[in-house]
Design brief:
single chain; 6-stranded parallel sheet; Rossmann fold; 3-stranded antiparallel sheet; formyl-coa transferase, domain 3; alpha/beta
Amino acid sequence: MGILDGVRIVELGRNIATPWMGMIMASLGAEVIKIGETEWLPDIKRHGPSSPDFSPTCMVWPDYAGGTKSFAVDMHFDEGLRLVGDLIKISDVFVNNFSLDAIAKWGLEGQHVKEFKPDIIMVQQPAAGVVGPYKDYVSYGYGMGALGGLANITGFPNSAPIAPGHSPADYHSGVNAAMLIVAALERHRRTGKGIQIELPLYESAVCVTGSTLLDYGANANIRQRIGNRNRYAAPHNAYPCKGEDCFCVITVFNDTEWAALCAVLMNSSLTSDARFSTVIGRLQNEDELDSLIADWTQGQDAEDVVEKLQKAGVGAGVVAKAGDLVDGDNHLRARGWWQWLDDPKWGRVPENPVPIRFSDTPLSWAPAPYIGEHNEYVCKELLKLPQEEFNNLNEKGVLSTREVLEAFLF
């Protein structure tokens, strides 16, 4: 039995922020029912990786839907909207990340939902919020990450801003949503009252820009892009190692760590060089310092460099690729991190669980459902629809069948 066993969450979301919340809550034992319809599927498909012939395959769905249930309903039909409303009535939480216009069009804005489910816990994850000049913005995590200041501090000097490799705003919003839902459930347990929670991607991005805003407010300083370097530590960079596209990172924050690094390098001249004897000196001579360290690392395997430095108490790590993590990371394997999915299309592939462990209660995990896999369960078991009505909904196209959905995805 999971920690949130007995909690039902209706998830009306796509892409990352809301689905990531759903996967976390499902791992904690909640019943998470994902609402989906066929017009969203090209959006899901676009985010999948490419197969060898460059045709996209849908990997984003299994990566963000593990442990959930799928109810594929066409909300263009009045019957579809009624089904979604009826499902919310018998649920504890309703989460969405659609634009305000879309939610209003479906009649699922907060005040309307409260009319038929007064104690609902409702979480909205719009792009920029439900009030304010940007409230009608439509965007993804990358756009809000740029607007929130993340892109401006990511990249190298004298180059254009670079978006992070993924979308921190989405994941930050998803984790925060899960945390806030747990808090709201506790409040509901004590008071019997629901609540509306607003969690914009824009503000989630602003929150992960670190001390840049404080630096501007206190010092009128606008942070510049500095690549992999750090304003308070040197060396602090990625260094080339033996092999194609192989790197390690090394970070030294104080003189003790610097002495340990020099001992590993077996270069006594570095220890005695006045330019590098203090943190300030190393920061002022960072180009030459990076060059000297790169000369030492580039002839060695990244794993060997990291092992030597870690034994000496110096912060270091391999710049891992996906293959390194899946096939070669003994630490993740020893901790039982990977969940393996046997799929008829892709074969045996790894799926990321959520990074949470409890001492006594195991997390719930199951492979992602086929889209629409739980249509019958939702309609007949939860909503108590008779078989004839269920058949009519299928025939009319209100409910999407697996065959129709696979035509979109594959």
